[in-house]
Specification:
alpha/beta; seven-stranded mixed beta sheet; four-stranded mixed beta sheet; 15 strands
């Protein structure tokens, strides 16, 4: 079957129905624009769900992929490779991290982070049977999203994503987001980690308060628990810093990153310290495609574009353009009760009279050549 012989209707005939894609099939992109099978142009405000950090078909990223495609595609983790080493070196040089683990997605990065947190606790605080630690409680937050594996979807604080998949992993406590008192009451010496999004993406583009993140940092230090920042969606320049922890002035023990890291090429990473990484000794965890030469060559090119001072400075300027425009729309039509987020991670909460009609807005935008997303309740 050639591309010309497939259409949106083909999806309903051959694909598992776990998605409900829009009414057109994109075939080409350039910068912030996408074109469908009929040649119609759209402005892409969705970015593949916060993935296309440098737009579509960025020339530097295409060049990196093309060059690597002519050299080496895959070796798996029985060998290392130059692009993986270069990318890890770049991340270590430009973040708090001393060690990097590569995988394919944000879910895998979070899975690795959560497993590592329990492994560190097991190594340092073994249980009575010397096999599993009693220090295994994971603290997470309501309306969070950390991936779709059974472990990460359970840690995410949205029951709609776990319904029908039980029994679920245990030892996970969900607390209200931005409620430091609740965290203070729930944490103890049995807590092995706290995982939090500095900005909740799928939970409605809700920013953590600086004092909340700082308080979590202090509580984790007090209880000898690890602080994990899930920056899968808010990282890679989206806030105007390479990673959001810099913006908030709070350093985690582990940081996870994906989405924008590859600019559209599947890649994820977990960043941490040398001491913490030591618990992932040989054979403790792995990924067949993690550190793939193609993915790592692309990701390094993306980071070099994003981490340029002019790119990061441009985030604030472009945010102001967008927010000013949204306020003008709101003044005329009364659509939103709040416009929130940081940098170019922007969310608009619908006014009461439009509650529950998020899908209608997305559909109307599509019909007018604009790609939008729903985050949180519709």
């Amino acid at each position: 079957m050639t591309p010309a012989e497939v259409s949106r209707e083909t999806f309903d005939k051959v694909m598992v129905p776990n998605y409900a894609p829009g009414g057109f099939v994109p075939v080409r992109g350039q910068g912030s624009r996408v074109w469908d099978q009929a040649g119609r142009e759209y402005v892409d405000f969705a970015g593949g769900i916060a993935v296309s950090a440098v737009g579509h078909v960025h020339e530097k990223v295409v060049a990196a992929l093309t060059e690597q495609a002519g050299k080496l595609w895959h070796v798996a983790n029985v060998l290392t490779n130059e692009p993986a080493l270069a990318l890890a070196q770049y991340l270590v040089a430009h973040t708090f991290a001393e060690r990097v683990f590569f995988c394919n997605s944000g879910a895998e990065a979070n899975e690795a982070a959560l497993k590592l947190a329990r492994k560190v606790a097991s190594d340092q605080y073994p249980g009575a049977d010397e096999k599993d630690s009693e220090k295994n409680q994971i603290i997470a937050f309501e309306n969070s999203f950390h991936g779709r594996t059974l472990f990460t979807v359970t840690v995410g604080g949205q029951p709609k994503y776990t319904k029908g998949f039980g029994p679920l992993p245990q030892g996970i406590t969900h607390l209200p987001f931005n409620d430091l008192d609740a965290a203070r009451k729930a944490m103890s010496d049995k807590t092995c980690c706290v995982i939090v999004e500095p900005i909740q993406g799928e939970g409605g583009v809700t920013s953590a308060r600086q004092e909340f993140l700082q308080g979590l940092r202090e509580l984790c230090t007090q209880h000898e628990a690890l602080l994990i920042f899930d920056e899968v969606q808010c990282g890679v320049g989206r806030t105007g810093c390479l990673y959001a922890y810099e913006k908030f002035g709070v350093k985690p023990d582990i940081l996870t990153t994906a989405k924008g890291l590859g600019g559209g090429f599947p890649v994820g990473a977990m960043l941490t310290s040398e001491k913490i990484a030591a618990s992932f000794g040989v054979g403790a965890h792995g990924s067949t495609y993690g550190g793939n030469p193609l993915a790592c060559a692309v990701a390094k090119a993306v980071l070099e574009v994003v981490n340029a001072p002019e790119t990061l400075r441009g985030v604030a300027l472009r945010r102001q353009w967008l927010v000013d425009g949204l306020h003008l729309l709101n003044k005329k039509y009364g659509i939103f009760v709040e416009i929130r987020g940081e940098g170019l991670l922007i969310g608009c909460e619908l006014a009461e009279k439009w509650k529950g009609r998020g899908k209608d807005f997305v559909k109307a935008a599509e019909q007018n050549g604009l790609m939008l997303l729903i985050a949180g309740r519709t």
